[in-house]
Amino acid sequence: MRKIQLLMLFVLSAIIFQGCKKDVVTSASVTSDQILAATINGTSWIPDDVTATINYDAGAKTKTFSVVGTADLKRVRWTITLADAASATDVNTFPLATYRVDATNKLRMAYLTSADGTVYNQVGTVDAGLGTVIITAIDPTKNVITGTYNLTAKKVNYNPDGTIASIETSQVQGGSFTNLPYTFTHVSN
Known about the structure:
Blueprint: H1 2-18, E1 29-30, E2 36-40, E3 43-45, E4 49-57, E5 62-71, E6 74-82, E7 98-100, E8 107-113, E9 121-122, E10 131-139, E11 144-158, E12 164-181, E13 183-187
Parallel strand pairs: 4-13
Antiparallel strand pairs: 1-4, 2-3, 2-12, 4-5, 5-6, 6-8, 7-10, 8-9, 10-11, 11-12
């Protein structure tokens, strides 16, 4: 009899704990449940505010994928801009590909920090070859997108005579976005 009571207690406990799972909000601006994450300068970073948008601009014939994540007075943002006729279409999707920071400005990335949480300042620049976004999956029915990202921002500090005093680097490594909800918008001019 005692064994049956213990078994029933175990089953009941498992049912109660199963019902306590955290729900993930699926909207374009969400409270994060690790839908966007990275390691910034060696410290794990999971933003508590994330916004993602895919926008088609009919007048400019461009399509952009923009992401902004903010937490702990740190912000990471990137925008991929497609201007070629094959990719910049008025369809709720984005090409699966590897995008790199280069001279074309197809991918623009930034790392920002804030002293008070109201004004964010860019920390250096992400030069060619120092930033990547890889889009590995997109579900336009659910409006979610998945992939990885990383960047290194460099800030050069100069002496009064114009010589380099120091170079500061900030690394955002091992970044991932998993089933990141986005909003699809269409602008026509």
